[in-house]
Amino acid sequence: MTARSVHYAFAVFCLGALLFGGCTSIPDRETVSPQGFATIRNAAPRSSMEKINVARLRMDKPAIERLAPGDVLGIYIANVTGNENSEIPIHNIGKDSTEAPASGYPFPVRSDGTISLPLLREPIYVEGMSIIEAENAIRNAYTVQTQFLSEGANISVSLIRRRTYHVTVIREDTATNNNISNNVNRGSMESYFGGMERGNAVTLELPAYRNDVLEALSKSGGLPGLNAKNEVIILRKGTEDLFETDGDYLPNDLAAWSRSVADHYNQTGEIAGLGRGMGIIRIPIRVSPCKIPPRLTSDDVTLRDGDVVLIQSRDAEVFYTGGMIKGGVHPIPRDYDLDVLGAIATAGGGLGYGWGGGGTGSTSGNSIFLLPPSRILVLRQVNGQQMAIRIPQKEALRDPSQRVLIEPNDVILLEYTRLEMLFNLIYSNIRFNVNVKDFFD
Fold first, then answer.
1. Angle value at C-alpha 411, between 406 and 417, nearest 5 degrees
2. Is 43 domain-assigned?
3. Which of 380, 374, 385, 371 is nearest to 411 (CA)?
4. Which of 311, 327, 353 is the last residue of a domain?
5. Does a structural domain hold residue 372?
6. pLDDT digit string (tens) for 267-315?
């Protein structure tokens, strides 16, 4: 048999093997087109989701602030809390103070909403009053009811310190670190698999009228990071006991309970066992345009004593690659869409005919492949069944409607078509080894 016959027979064998045996993983008849798939499942694009106005996470501050238990008043009553010639104590004048300057001797508002003052037999009820109303009530008690002082007595009332609310913030989007300012969202692929450290829990003391979700987030690292879910959860203790198997904490002491939640999470990395009587408030950070944003009221975002603000880590959302793309696992962005071409590029694959070999280079063994693979398959589970979406690369480059959006657990394969494989085999095995004249001698 002559050399011409050998190469001719080899070419015929390759052609038959490709046309009848096939060189693709899934035949075309078992696939669906992107247009056909759109009628089966049409997921909402991630990029269409809109972030809510973060100002809605701030509570409405009233025009007049009211007193409540835990407030500390600065009260000066001439010849009662101090002599005429004595200096009035001054408070809140340091550079680190966040309160307005105040003067007078400190008197706390007790748990029953009253303050106890010298010479008076009965305490004065000030809960729900403004500072001016409290000053008038004190003046009335000394100058009218008891007449200890004249109407022109020097009496002044100011606010030394606002009451605070004990709130625990559990963030699973930050690494464990005692210093919140050092917690950095690393954004690596580890975070999509839960590979980060378990998170961090801190207890905050939020002053009155700043005890809202936005304040808690700003003091604990900001809005949820990219490796966190797009929601903020508020856990509010009901009437049940604290930890179901732990009796070390008083059920009614919300401040102690709030601190114990932080300790429990930092020691165990879990929030289980907080009790059955937990109320749950979910506040989405991003919503789909087809959904009406939540109508958050000031009360919805106002935090109470003992509340737990929970930011959960995002579930692993990845896609897989194979075929002529280097096999691997790759994260899916949380807040924007990744189409099939972008996914191939993210995985290190090439696109277009300026590239040869689908991530394996332009050669296969010692043979030179001229045409790159252009058959794209996206394998996706729909209602428990696998769907294979076939996308011609040329069409995807020209028509954006061909570029399906990648969903979690999709598998992307890049393969040669039969004609591409046939051409490459003939090109690599015949062009450089056989003289074309051999076929005509």
1. 105
2. yes
3. 380
4. 311
5. yes
6. 877 776 665 667 888 888 877 666 666 778 899 899 998 899 999 887 7
Q: What is the CA radius of gyration of the chain?
A: 36
**pLDDT tens-digit readout, 192-246:** 544 445 678 899 999 999 999 999 999 998 888 777 888 899 988 764 444 444 4
d(CA 64, CA 346): 55
Q: State whether 410 and 341 are in the same domain.
A: yes
Residue 157 banded pLDDT, cuts 50, 70, 90: very high
Long-range contacts from 82-87, C-beta under 8 angstroms, 24+ separation? 84/154
User: Same domain, yes or no, for 263 and 174?
Assistant: yes
Give the whole-angstrom CA distance, residue 189 versus residue 173. 13
> Are residues 228 and 348 located together in one domain of the fold?
no
* 246 plus 120 within the same structural domain: no
Domain span at residue 408 reads 3-48+317-439
Residues 297 and 183 in one domain: yes
Q: What global pTM score does this model have?
A: 0.67
What number is the average pLDDT over the span 151-162? 92
The torsion angle over the Cα atoms of residues 44, 47, 49 and 53, rounded to 10 degrees, is 180
Structure confidence by residue, pLDDT tens digits, 352-369: 655 444 444 444 444 456
Nearest CA among 438, 402, 394 for reference residue 7? 438
